[in-house]
Automatic annotation (TrEMBL):
Keywords per UniProt: Electron transport, Membrane, Mitochondrion, Mitochondrion inner membrane, Respiratory chain, Transmembrane, Transmembrane helix, Transport
Main location class: mitochondrion
Top-level taxonomic group: Eukaryota
Membrane topology listed for this record: Single-pass membrane protein
Electron transport listed as a keyword: yes
InterPro entries the record matches: NADH_Ub_cplx-1_asu_su-1
One annotated Gene Ontology cellular component of this protein: mitochondrial inner membrane
Pfam families per the UniProt record, alphabetical: MWFE
Protein name: NADH dehydrogenase [ubiquinone] 1 alpha subcomplex subunit 1
Length: 70
């Protein structure tokens, strides 16, 4: 009986399992640190748009001084 390939299945399974564990650990650590999953493929444009959106939300959340002085 030729089942020598079974000798390779256990180490390959262990390696694949640890790769999955490490990938999930990175996901959950990033999500715990930043409160959201990591954006894959985040380039300079995405960073600029996130920065712009954050400024806009801060401006909308801050009380406007021009309307309260009337």
């Amino acid at each position: 009986m030729n089942v020598r390939w079974l000798e390779a299945v256990l180490p390959l399974g262990i390696i694949a399992g640890f790769l999955c564990v490490m990938g999930n650990a990175q996901y959950f650590i990033h999500k715990a640190a930043h409160g959201r999953p990591k954006h894959i493929g985040n380039d300079v444009w995405d960073v600029a748009m996130e920065r712009r959106d954050k400024k806009m939300m801060e401006m909308l959340a801050s009380p406007s001084t021009s309307s309260s002085s009337s």
